[in-house]
Design goal:
Helices cover about 25% and strands about 20% of the residues. It is an alpha/beta fold. It has a domain of about 210 residues: Glycoside hydrolase/deacetylase (TIM Barrel), CATH 3.20.20.370. Helix 7 links the parallel strand 4 and strand 5. The two termini are about 35 Å apart.
Length: about 650
C-alpha cells in the first residue's frame, strides 16, 4: 500500500505540473489544425527515431608522412629487450621469459583489479573480459576524443567492465590489468606517454589502435625503434601515409560492403606493409570515382582498387581512421564493432538473432490491428515486443476540434484486452514514456502523444545548420533541431514520469513493464539517471554529451547518438537492448530519406558480419501490414532467428 501511494503521489506531481503558457507559443502553433490528409491520432509524424546526431570526423591531417611531435621520445620497449636482433635478422623478437610471465595469460575482470587514475571512469557488466579505453584529450578538439571513447567503451560494454581515461593520464603497467586495450587517436601528435607506448609494444594482450599517432610506436623511419617494430609487426607506421587523395565511400569486411560517409574525408592512414606474411588484412577501403572502382592513388602504397582499412599483426589490430564519425546503419562502424570479438571474446559463440518491436501503441490504437499483427508473428514463431504509451494526451485538441483530450490505458478496455492477447501470443510489453510528448507546446510538432518528444527540446527550423530560423507549425521541408534539455529538466522529474507511466500500466491490470524505450531516443543525462533508477533495461539508441567522462559540465551543443549491433552495458550504467536497423519510412520527411523494406533487410545482411550480430527493427502498426511481412520474411531468409528482447547474449 505504501508503494502504491508513492506511485500515486508521483503521478499527481507529474500531472499537476504547470504547462507552459500558450502565450509563449507562436500563435500559429497554438491554433494550427491537422492537415487534410489526417493521420490517426498519436501516429508519429516524422521525427525519425533513428535520426540521432552524428559525430564529426577529426580535423584533416597534413599531407605526406606523419611527422613526430616536438619533444617526442621514441619507445625503447622492443629495442631494449632485443638490441640489434630484430633489425639484423628481420625476425620477430622473442620476449624474455620473465616478461611473458607477466602478460601471457589474458586478464579477466574477475582475476585482476585495474589501477585507475583519477581521470578514469569505469562502467559495464561483470562479463568475462575487461577493457581499457584510452583517448586523446588535448588541443581544441580534445572533446571529440572523449566522445569517441564513450562510443568505443559502449561497444566494449558487451563483454564486461570498461575503464576510459585520457591517454595522458595513463599509469605505467596499467595495460596489463585488462583483457584488451583500445586507443582512439583523434588528435594529431597527442603527447602520448612513453610508458604507454612501451607497454603496448611489450604486452602480448590484444591492443586495438585506431587512426592517429601509431607512428609514435615506431619512431623515425629507419631508427632502431622503427626496425624493431617492422620486425615484429610486419609494417611500418613511420612510412605510412594518410591517403589524402582517395575518399573511400565503401569498405569491405567479411564479404560485406559497408558504407562510409563522404564527410569523413580523405584521411584514412594506408599502412605500409613490409612483410605481408606477418600481416592479416581484415578490411579494405575501396577507391571509387562516381561509384565506379578505380585504382587507388599512389600515396596509398598499394595496387588495385582498394587499400587496407584494418590490419592485424601479432597482438596489434590497427584501423586507419576513427570509425565513429557519421555512423549509420550501413556504416563501417558496424564492421569495427566486430573487431572487438577476437580481442575480448575470441571463443564467443556466433549468433544472429532478430528482434521486432511494434511502435507507439497507445490508448487510441485500433485493437484489431494489434491482434492481427500478433496472430501473424505468432504464426511465424516470431517473439516480439510492443512499445506502449500508457497515457495518450492531446492538450490542445489538435486532433479533436480544439478540445483537449486525455485517455489512459484503464479508460481503453478494448485496447487493454488486445494487449493481454498480445502477451498470450508471445509479445512483451514495453513502457514508451509516460505521455510521449511535453506539456502543451509543439515539441516539435503538435504536443500530441506519439508525435512529440517527451524528454528533450525539439524545434523545426528552415535550415539544418546555424543560424537557425525556427518556425511553427513544422513544414515537411524543415529540419528537426534538438536544442537541449527541457525547462525544469532533472533526474527527479524524469523519475516521476517513469513512475507515473508504470502506475498507468498497473492500474489497467497489465502489470509493470521491465523495459523502457525513451520517446524519440532523446533525453538528457539527468533524465537517463532518473529513468534508470526505475528501469534497469532500455531498448533503444541513445545520446551522449561532451563532459561525461571528463567531469566537466555537460555541453549539449556537442552530443552524439549511438546505436548498437549487439546488447551492451553503456556509459550510463544501463543494459541496452539494440535497435539497429531502423523502421519503415515510405517518403522523405524533414530531410530524412525514405527507408524501405529492402533497406531494412540490407542492414540486417550487413550485421551478419558481426559475430553476435542482432537484426533489430521497429514497425508502426499504422503502416501497411504487408511491409511487416516483407521485413520479417527477408530477415528470416538471411538466417536470423527471432527471439525475445531479454534473450540476447552479452
Amino acid at each position: 500500500m505504501r508503494h502504491y501511494r508513492a506511485l500515486a503521489a508521483a503521478v499527481a506531481a507529474v500531472t499537476l505540473a504547470a504547462p507552459l503558457a500558450t502565450a509563449n507559443m507562436p500563435a500559429s502553433a497554438a491554433q494550427k489544425q491537422p492537415p487534410a490528409a489526417a493521420r490517426q491520432p498519436g501516429h508519429r509524424l516524422s521525427v525519425s527515431q533513428v535520426d540521432t546526431p552524428s559525430l564529426p570526423a577529426p580535423p584533416l591531417p597534413g599531407h605526406g608522412r606523419p611527422v613526430q611531435r616536438s619533444g617526442y621520445r621514441p619507445p625503447t620497449g622492443l629495442v631494449r629487450r632485443h638490441p640489434g636482433t630484430a633489425a639484423a635478422t628481420g625476425g620477430v623478437p622473442a620476449f624474455p621469459a620473465v616478461a611473458l610471465a607477466k602478460t601471457a595469460s589474458p586478464v579477466t575482470a574477475a582475476s585482476a583489479v585495474a589501477a585507475v587514475p583519477a581521470r578514469g571512469v569505469t562502467w559495464g557488466s561483470s562479463g568475462s573480459a575487461s577493457t581499457l579505453v584510452v583517448y586523446d584529450s588535448t588541443n581544441s578538439y580534445g572533446w571529440l576524443g572523449e566522445l569517441y571513447a564513450i562510443a568505443a567503451g559502449n561497444l566494449a560494454g558487451h563483454f564486461g567492465k570498461v575503464t576510459a581515461e585520457p591517454v595522458v593520464s595513463y599509469v605505467p603497467g596499467q595495460l596489463s590489468n585488462y583483457t584488451a586495450t583500445i586507443y582512439i587517436g583523434s588528435t594529431y601528435n597527442e603527447p602520448i606517454p612513453t610508458a604507454f607506448l612501451n607497454d603496448v609494444l611489450a604486452t602480448t594482450q590484444p591492443v586495438i589502435w585506431a587512426a592517429d599517432n601509431v607512428w609514435q610506436l615506431s619512431g623515425a623511419e629507419g631508427s632502431p625503434a622503427d626496425q624493431a617494430f617492422k620486425a615484429k609487426y610486419g609494417w611500418d607506421p613511420s612510412n605510412s601515409y594518410f591517403d589524402t587523395t582517395d575518399n573511400p565511400l565503401t569498405m569491405s569486411y567479411k564479404g560485406q560492403t559497408f558504407s562510409r560517409n563522404a564527410n569523413s574525408g580523405a584521411q584514412v592512414l594506408a599502412p605500409s606493409i613490409t612483410n605481408p606474411a606477418a600481416v592479416t588484412v581484415l578490411a579494405q577501403a575501396n577507391c571509387t570515382n562516381g561509384g565506379t572502382p578505380v585504382n587507388c592513388a599512389p600515396i596509398a602504397q598499394t595496387t588495385g582498387t582498394s587499400f587496407p582499412w584494418a590490419i592485424r599483426s601479432a597482438n596489434l589490430t590497427y584501423v586507419g581512421e576513427v570509425p565513429f564519425s557519421y555512423m549509420s546503419e550501413s556504416d563501417r562502424y558496424v564492421a569495427f564493432s566486430d573487431l572487438l570479438f577476437p580481442a575480448l571474446a575470441p571463443s564467443a559463440t556466433p549468433s544472429h538473432l532478430g528482434l521486432v518491436r511494434l511502435e507507439d501503441v497507445n490508448p487510441t490504437t485500433d485493437p484489431a490491428i494489434l491482434m492481427q499483427i500478433a496472430d501473424y508473428l505468432s504464426s511465424q514463431n516470431v517473439p516480439f515486443s510492443v512499445n506502449v504509451i500508457p497515457q495518450y494526451t492531446d492538450p490542445n485538441g489538435f486532433y479533436n476540434g480544439g478540445m483537449p483530450r486525455t485517455v489512459t490505458l484503464a479508460q481503453a478496455p478494448s485496447l487493454v484486452a488486445a494487449l493481454k492477447y498480445v502477451q498470450s501470443k508471445g509479445g512483451t510489453l514495453i513502457d514508451e514514456g509516460y505521455t510521449h510528448q511535453y506539456s502543451n507546446v509543439a515539441n516539435p510538432y503538435d504536443g500530441v502523444s506519439g508525435d512529440d518528444a517527451e524528454f528533450y527540446r525539439a524545434r523545426c527550423a528552415t535550415t539544418p545548420t546555424p543560424p537557425y530560423t525556427f518556425e511553427a507549425p513544422c513544414q515537411n521541408s524543415d529540419s528537426v533541431i534538438w536544442t537541449g534539455p527541457l525547462p525544469g529538466d532533472s533526474s527527479g522529474w524524469a523519475t516521476g514520469r517513469a513512475l507515473a507511466g508504470s502506475l498507468v500500466f498497473t492500474l489497467a491490470g497489465l502489470g509493470t513493464p521491465k523495459i523502457w524505450v525513451t520517446p524519440h531516443y532523446f533525453a538528457s543525462a539527468a533524465d537517463y539517471a532518473g529513468i534508470d533508477s526505475i528501469f534497469k533495461i532500455r531498448y533503444e539508441r541513445e545520446i551522449f554529451a561532451s563532459g561525461q567522462l571528463g567531469g566537466q559540465p555537460l555541453n549539449y551543443s556537442r552530443i552524439f547518438g549511438q546505436f548498437f549491433p549487439y546488447q551492451v552495458h553503456d556509459a550510463y550504467g544501463e543494459q541496452i537492448i539494440p535497435e539497429n536497423l531502423g523502421d519503415y519510412e515510405p517518403v522523405s520527411v524533414n530531410n530524412n530519406p525514405p527507408r524501405l523494406p529492402a533497406d531494412l533487410v540490407h542492414n540486417a545482411q550487413l550485421n551478419l558480419a558481426v559475430t553476435q550480430g542482432v537484426a533489430s527493427f521497429f514497425f508502426d502498426p499504422n503502416e501497411p501490414f504487408s511491409v511487416l511481412q516483407q521485413v520479417v520474411t527477408g530477415i528470416k531468409a538471411l538466417g536470423y532467428t527471432f527471439t525475445s528482447p531479454t534473450s540476447l547474449p552479452g
